[in-house]
């Protein structure tokens, strides 16, 4: 299947249809739902050292293996299930990343207790509103920002794993804390609304 080019899109998404769908429907849309935040934290921490395309292709496998990203369930995964996950070809079979997801689910709920929701916590790092960048080329995109540095440092202090500044900036882009669509991408104005 070829990717339709009738609309101007960010060039990074033109590799395969799932990428286009992700770009056109999810990337950069502000997220306030804690379960969706947790989903992206799991997927982004799994991505470390890999391509996002690899993770997108395994997303459904993660959804099934990680209880539809129910952090309350993931926080209670027993060691026997970790061993099962290590045999599951539908996810990234890295024991440190799997254990990080379980640990992060536990830390996630601690943040919820303190702030009322994870969404309240994370949106506080951008003053409660999307940072609107005006990128004209992909070369203008940043890998980290002072906000992602601060957030990653705070998450680390709270015991989160596999969530450095680059990974957290990707999370901020994915969940609409930052609008990094190129200005000539059809989604830039839609997300900006």
Automatic annotation (TrEMBL):
InterPro entries: Adenine_glyco, DNA-3mA_glycosylase, DNA_glycosylase. It holds the Pfam family Adenine_glyco. SUPFAM superfamilies: DNA-glycosylase. It comes from the Bacteria. Signal peptide: none annotated. This is DNA-3-methyladenine glycosylase I. It comes from Algoriphagus jejuensis.
